[in-house]
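Changelog excerpt

This revision adds worked examples to the README so contributors can see how folded entries look when concatenated. The first example is reproduced verbatim below.
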Amino acid sequence: MQGGTDQAACDTLGKMRLRLNRQQRLSPPQAHTPAARKDAWLWRLACLAVNLIGFELYAR
């Protein structure tokens, strides 16, 4: 960590990740229709992207 902005970004991303994880537990998309299946994949990709960005910032 080189400064306060990095720490703030990490804190924000951590909160976003917690919120995403909580939302994922509460309401996972139902995979019955092709559209819902695509939404589920987009949801997983979005969560993965947030986790990777958070990890990259944290690892600095």
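The second example, added in the same revision:
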Amino acid sequence: MNNPEIFNQNILNQITSEIVVLDKDLKVIWVNDSAITNNWKISDEHSNINSQFSFQTNAELKQLIDDCLDTGNTIIKRDFKLERDNDKYRIVDLTVNWSESDQLLILEVLCVDNLHKIIDSSKVFSTQKIAANLARTLAHEVKNPLSGIKGSAQILMNKLNDDFSKKFLDIIINETERLNNIVTKILTPPKKPKLELFNIHSALEKVFALSQADEYEDLKIQRDYDPSIPEVYGDEDLFIQAILNIFKNAQQALTLTEDPLITIKSRVTYSQPINGVIHSTLCE
């Protein structure tokens, strides 16, 4: 406590900002612990602060120091790019002070890289939250029309007698129900897939029926099923949605083809990797 200079240096070593003291020749004569951690160095007799940074940083830093010396005012530069010769750089808030009594320049450097990361993270979170709220709002708006479509299709199903109309009304009812389930999933917290045994060909027939109702009139669709395939264990709705997505991609890829043809084929293959893992089949 008897030496104020040592006392002041101890205080400056406790703060997180980097404190760099320069003489009038821009030689670094003292740095605090935080500055040492970030590779600031005391200048030797043949160098000054310019030896520590890139040409661009030195030019901009000299301009800030000149402004400070000319005006006698404290100069603050936000988002200053502090670049070293090895192309490594940091974004900092830089404050330049001139002490007339001591004839010294004092630089205070505050790294804002982490602050920017926090701000960017907050922006992403905010955007995701807005998107989720928008999805829920749209889902609410969609549910009511879906109920109306399904109800109307069911009324028509009871009034119409021809099989052709009933076939497509049945598709409308089933797909409306499937869409309603998707909307419900958006509105409710994520749940595990509904795993149960289902007939893979029954699911493929639903995909086929939907494809028949599509606007691609010239498209020919063949079915080639292996009837020996047993029921599979999984979520039928997710399976149908996945196959529909693949089917839609195939349709779009064949738009300019002269005689478009898609074959829906089912086969059993053995020793095939799934996600890079070969699974064994055990039978009793």
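Reviewer comment on example two: Helices lie at 4-12, 33-37, 55-71, 113-159, 163-187, 200-212, 236-253. Residues 113-159 form the longest helix (47 residues).
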